[in-house]
Amino acid sequence: MLVRARTFTETSRRAQIVTAAIEVIAEVGYAKASFSRIATHAGLSSTGMISYHFAGKDDLLAACVAEIERVTGSFMEPYLEGADGHVAQLRAYVESNVALVGEHPAAVRALIDIVRNGAATSPGVSGRPAVFEEHFRAGQEAGVFRPFDVRAVTIALTSGLDAVVATAAADPPGPAELARLGRELADLYVRATTSEGESA
User: Fold this and answer.
1) Cα 163–107–29 angle (5° rounding)?
2) 194 forms bridges with which residues in the sheet?
3) Which molecular function terms from Gene Ontology are attached (predicted)?
């Protein structure tokens, strides 16, 4: 079946609605993020304009998650690409994830609330455990990380990181404080996973 391509205007309107939805969810939470609130925030004349572009709330939330993950990936990717070695990559992931709060606080708060309420699936969040476990195993095989249960450490790392990010996102501190938090957390995980406390 042929699918009609969206026009530039339709694409722009969808982006406008997604941005408004993310900001509303960040401000009032998923439960109170009605189409009416989103339409008002986006400056739309009616909720029908949202329904025209999205099949329903689930469809809109999926688009919100996709946009948040795009923004998150674009922000964190330069940090990760510039990190050479298993430990440096671990540090870059943690520090950039915390720094993300300062650059995109609404996106972070919205994603946390969406995932917490089970309103939509985030491939980036649900896929993290497998990525970290693979990273730790590879580092252990390379002699960089000490022997440990990769599943347990992955759970501890992601849970701790999520808690710090959620706390910071609720009332974002300044860039210097976020950088300090990121370094402290990265130092903690490096000390916990390496024999020397730091290696390449």
Assistant:
1) 75
2) 145
3) DNA-binding transcription factor activity; transcription cis-regulatory region binding
Measured CA to CA, the distance from residue 115 to residue 113 in angstroms comes to 6
Q: What are the distances in angstroms from CA 100 to CA 113, 135, 193? A: 16, 21, 24
**Contact indicator for 181, 175 with CB cutoff of 8 Å:** no
Other Cβ atoms within 10 Å of 104 Cβ, number: 21
* Token code pair at residue 83: 């990190």
Domains of the chain by start residue, with CATH: 8-193 (1.10.357.10)
What tens-digit pLDDT sequence spans the chain (200 residues)? 444 556 767 788 999 999 999 999 999 999 999 999 999 999 998 999 999 999 898 899 999 999 999 999 999 999 999 999 999 999 999 999 999 999 999 999 999 999 888 766 778 888 899 999 999 999 999 999 999 999 999 999 999 999 999 999 999 999 999 999 999 999 999 999 998 655 44
Burial class from Cβ neighbours inside 10 Å (0-12, 13-18, 19+) for residue 68 reads buried
